[in-house]
Amino acid sequence: MPLRITLGNLLHECAEKFAERQFLVIAETGESLTYNEFEVLTNRITNGLLEQFPEKIKYVNIFLENSSQYLALTYALKKANAIEVSINPAMRGESLARMINQTGSKLLFTSGIQLEALDQIRDSITNIESLIMLDSVDQAQKLFPELQIIFFEDLLSNCQDHIDSLAKDTDIATILFTSGTTGVSKGCLLSHRYAVRTAENLIEPNKITIKDSVYTFYPLSHIGPAYYDILPTIMTGGRVILRQRFSVSNFWLEAKKYGATWFMMLGSVQQLLWAHPSCPEEKDHKVTRCWGTPAPVPKKDFDARFNLHLVPGGGYGSTDAGWVVAPQWDHPGGIVLPHFEVAIHDENDDPLPPNTPGEMVVRPLEPGVMSSGYFGMPERTLKSWRNLWFHTGDIGRMDDEGRFYFMHRISERIRVKGEMVSAYEIEEGVLLHPDVKDCAVIGVAGEMTEEDIKLFVIKKDNAQLTSEDLIMHCKERMARFMVPKHIVFLDEIPRTSTGKPEKGKLATLNF
């Protein structure tokens, strides 16, 4: 792709080139769109936004489950020079309110599935003036009579013309949230070039061609499906099989039904597939390869059971840093991409020799290929950038030939079912319980290769608080993947000299 191209214009070029090829299939329903049909839907959304909200689309919130409308909306916003603010549909409580409020967006695209979560935080939402509903318009009008409620279909313009984006490719296109290293979730500012460079650098390592069909099931609020799965497919003229959420019982049935040829595995997907009972479809399919985060299932066993090639790791990317290291087809070490410089540093920020583990630090060799910082958090941005390097909070090593190997994290992020979770935000939600005096959260080894959330709690005096009470409290206020799996009641939480929970000591407690 040309270097200086924006996402809306890129889609337009690909839609013209691959017009009648099937582009998108929704796994649950079989709904199907060609490249041209998807482009037309995108253009109708773009023109509708410009006709109805010309002064209100600098930032646009999306709080939706995966759908063809959601995906089209993300590209429509790029054509309208608006900034997409995608929020994980599993978010709940104050974390959700904070994300909705952060940019001051006046528009929120959502659906009936999410109305209960929005109703719970209605007093905390400060800027939204209009809800654009994919469905459940009457219910939304009853719950939010003070807001303008618009049916998505009524937003669509009769004009189907493509609007050529005037943005620069280094302009911000999207804000995606990441837990970062500590504190509340941060909105990462991602440019058009960030997205395009990420996608094009995944095509060759994963051998993606026009003949391929990717099966993707992560929320579109994640960088993975948006830029690792779907955008490389658009650029090569392939096909996207989009699912609302991962289903281990339907995985191989749908992979075979829709002719998937590759997929990405994040989090515990590899282990979940491995642990699921065998079925005939797990060998009888068109999938030739998959790739993702390292997991303990041996490659040779995984390949043999599922009749495919598991790319053996070595890749590295994050929402903050961008897609930095490309995996190799037949080697566990990754190759640093030419747009980045990577080093391994010790705790004093001094470089370490080859094969010595330390913190991975990154800096760009080209504008726009990394996050441009955290929205509204200049101090957090500066904290992440020290001594002219972005500090990833991840431990890795480089071998004598410059190949990178990821090892583990050193930050307070907890990886649960493919989600990066902020311990701070869980603690924040738990402390809202009237019987909780203090708490701390850590990640512990989980059954499915990642981490489980372990919560330590001090009750208020004479409180009759149970683990079941806290789990119910958390389920009402936070995303499912944030709910603690283990709860321990303590008389005192060990703290450092600066008052922070001494999480290293908590990790050594046996309960």
UniProtKB/TrEMBL annotation:
Transmembrane segments: none annotated. Residues 425-500 form the AMP-binding enzyme C-terminal domain. Residues 12-371 form the AMP-dependent synthetase/ligase domain. GO terms for molecular function: medium-chain fatty acid-CoA ligase activity. Keywords: Ligase. It holds the Pfam family AMP-binding. One of its GO terms (biological process) is fatty acid metabolic process. InterPro entries: AMP-bd_C, AMP-bd_C_sf, AMP-binding_CS, AMP-dep_synth/lig_dom, ANL_N_sf. It comes from the Bacteria. Belongs to the ATP-dependent AMP-binding enzyme family. This is Acyl-CoA synthetase. The lineage of its organism: Bacteria, Pseudomonadati, Pseudomonadota, Gammaproteobacteria, Candidatus Pseudothioglobaceae.
